[in-house]
Design goal:
14% strand, binds magnesium ion, 40% helix, 236 residues, Rossmann fold, 8 helices
Length: 236
Amino acid sequence: MLNYLRFAYRENIMKKHLGLTIVFALLLSVTACTVEKPITAIDRDIQYVTVEVIQASLPETPIVVGFDIDDTVLFSSPGFHYGLTNHDGPGSTNLYGDDPLHSSEFWNDMNGEFDKFSLPKESGRALVKMHLTRGDKIVFITARNSSTQSILPEILAQNFGIPKPDVIFTSESPKTQFIQEKGILVYYGDADSDMMQAQKASARPVRVIRSTLSTNNASAYQPGAFGEEVLIHSAE
Ligand SMILES: [Mg+2]
């Protein structure tokens, strides 16, 4: 009788453990399904697209397309982070003064050296590859300040396989005029200003998602807010 009670008790414990295991497994699978969810507020209204969907929508003949650089094709936050937060100047001040983004020394270092530490985004690689395969012309337009030194063309050539990248620095001016002048039909960017300026230039804006690690909090970022297409899974 005692043995039977012990057996029944063990059975009961095992059943409880099995139940708990199933509950944990279910919780884990639900969590795994919801980890990647970069946008929440206006999710249901966003028109997500893939590289394949974009490709299928393009005309058969080659076109000109434009790309923003920071947070669109390059994760360049490491250089900007150093520039804005270092204490390497006299008396532990910022090496580039009180306003690093308006320091020519900062832009010489950022454009001329720090992009060695910028990471190419996988989504950017997939987009560039698709456009190169089609024979499209690619133009990069960045609102960065220009500088006497720049390794950006080499960095973009090495990381994206573009022989001689065309890189335009607008030095904080709107990109609209350059998008028009270059005859750009599709413009990729992460910032609201990219979308607005592409629309103003009658180009098709496509939003690229900003990495959650990006230190760019300065430029407004509301994916889908302009009715533009958003490239899915483009945070990396
Ligand atoms: Mg950007």
